[in-house]
Predict the 3D structure of the following.
Amino acid sequence: MNHFRLIIKLPLVIALCFLLSHEATAQTGGQPDSLKAQTDSLKTEKKKKEENGDKKKHSAYVVYTGINFNDLSIESDQYSSNLAIGWHLGAAYKRGGFFYWQAGLRFNSAQYDLLSSGSISDTLGDKFSVNDLDIPITGGINFLAFINSLANFRLFVSAVPSFALSVSDNKLEIEKSDINTFNFYGQAGLGVDVLFLVIEGGVNYGFIDLLQNDIKSKPVQIFINLGARF
């Protein structure tokens, strides 16, 4: 009799175990997918942080000021040229690692010292400033890109479209209408960055004559920049 009851209860016990197992599986079956979604979300967030960190590490804004030394490669019976000192102020965005590019704006007050052919002495020339808006577009090589945040040593070249804004008063009566208001410069230089400090030096050469009336007067400028990056 006891064996008979055991035989009857056994299928019920098996069925009850199956139902309990099925219910447990149903309740926990979604957890692997949920865990996978959370893992993917964490990986995506980590990747974004790494990309943002990399972008921040290899890009910077630069502001700078400096002095420039200007002369004209002049061929004229009317004028000769002496070296004169001007100044400039600019800002730029720099991006990249070993190879980098940079674009910005620069207000350039280049001073020239012209001597008319009737002057008694070469020291009696008249100085005047040509105020330009320059757009330097730069490409370069940073030899210390692996420690970019600490220090850089850079070589760079630039294409510089330049637009004349004004000409200062002068005894030679040279006005804005007497110069070419657009010029195109080739620029080359060296740069050193130490922490936030930026130091640059180089040469600009204008491919268009400064003075009109077929006067050969290519502008040449040596510049020194001192600025900060952030």
Remarks:
- The chain has two domains: 2-51, 58-229.
- The two ends are 92 Å apart (CA to CA).
